[in-house]
Amino acid sequence: MKKRVQEIIDGVEAIYVGKRPVVEKLLTAILANGHVLLEDVPGTGKTLLTKLIAQLCGMGYKRVQGTAELLPSDILGGEVWDMSSQSFRLVKGPVFTNIFLFDEINRVPPKTLSALLEVSEERQVTIGGESLKMARPFFLMATQNPTEFEGTWVLPEAQVDRFLMRISTGYPRTIEDENALLKRRIQWQSDDPSSLLKPLLDAESLAGMQAHIEKNVHVGSEIIHYISTIVRATREHPKIALGASPRGSLALLKASRAYAFIQGRDFVIPDDVTYCAIDCLNHRVTIKMDFEVEGVRSHSIIGEILGSVPVPRERTTRPEARDGGV
Ligand SMILES: Nc1ncnc2c1ncn2[C@@H]1O[C@H](COP(=O)(O)OP(=O)(O)OP(=O)(O)O)[C@@H](O)[C@H]1O
Ligand SMILES: [Mg+2]
Q1: Which atom of ligand 1 is nearest to the CA of 145?
Q2: pLDDT tens across 236-255, in order?
Q3: Helix axes 298-308 and 270-281, enclosed angle (nearest 10)
Q4: Rounded to whole angstroms, how far apart are CA atoms 219 and 256?
Q5: pTM for this model (two decimals)
């Protein structure tokens, strides 16, 4: 299983240059069965990354471009009048797929977005009084530009909380990465080589990996306490108006276990938690207005919290279940 996970990461990296941590985090979210929000400035490869992951995961995927005119029925489907039979016919929307790539989510009207998030949670859609089950697994991978960009708006706290992680893609870090990106373009002879990749997973093998994580990746009591302490610190920080909810603690637990699995371990170490904390929590805290206008951002406050919370001593072997862990 570990080999397969590394093959997927390498497969994405063959095209998407210099962003291994971003790729690992996206895969972490998939293994933790959570939705992901990719946020960054235009042209940093958000769309490319989601397409590559979807292609390598070997599951059905559909993509929708978010616009201000998008209606709930454009996503969910609806009833259309069929001239030949003189009756309404049910048409399923693009949300009936395994991986739903939703570009520019913060340009969509609130009504459309809340309809999408509602069905993502309930995993079923009601059209014309009929309840239709959605595919399993179902992942929402949404992209957005930072909210300072024109035509975008801030997603309400209750909506953004539905995402397991909010990940930033970022510019290539070094000039070598920038050069490699250009060389790969010449090598692949295409702006979008995602369709050239062969799938390495399918819905069944992914479900097998998820079940393995649920059953076998151990979390010690000191790790549970570490997660709780970090999350509680967000609720008490003087610059934070609204701290992370228990949904945030659960997200950090799930992501840490999935990341431990990616690293080839069957137990979580403090580093797994630290590594996932900013992406699991940064969209769940609201900075007080006074500090927000001064440029204080949630990821730096969570970084500060991580620096002040005592880190449990690291273990190098799987702890025994009797220590109060699970
Ligand atoms: N790290 C990278 N490695 C390889 N190619 C990249 C990388 N970052 C960006 N690109 C390339 O840059 C182009 C723009 O990327 P993409 O369309 O995915 O950006 P985006 O973040 O979705 O932008 P927008 O916010 O405007 O939708 C694509 O051709 C993509 O292949
Ligand atoms: Mg895009």
Answers
A1: 25
A2: 999 999 999 999 999 999 99
A3: 160
A4: 9
A5: 0.90
Q: What type of residue is 87? A: S
Contacts of 121 (CB under 8 A, 6+ apart): 162
Q: How far is the CA of 145 from the centre of ligand 2 (A)?
A: 9
Cα–Cα distance measured from residue 162 to residue 189, given in angstroms and rounded to the nearest whole number? 38
Closest to 49 measured CA to CA, from 70, 67, 75, 25? 25
Q: What is the DSSP string of 137-186?
A: S-EEEEEE--TTSTT--PPPHHHHTT-SEEEE--S-SSHHHHHHHHHHHH
Query: Biggest alpha carbon distance in the chain?
Result: 71
- The answer to whether the beta carbons of residues 43 and 2 sit under 8 Å apart is no
3-state SS class at 206: helix
Structure tokens at 190: 């295409």
For residue range 288-305, list pLDDT tens digits in order: 999 989 988 999 999 999
Q: 214 C-alpha vs ligand 1 centroid, how far in Å?
A: 34
Domains of the chain (ranges; CATH) run 1-191 (3.40.50.300), 217-312 (1.10.8.80)
DSSP codes joined into one string, 240-306: EEE---HHHHHHHHHHHHHHHHHTT-SB--HHHHHHHHHHHHTTT-EE-HHHHHTT--HHHHHHHHH
Nearest atom of ligand 1 to the alpha carbon of 172? 1
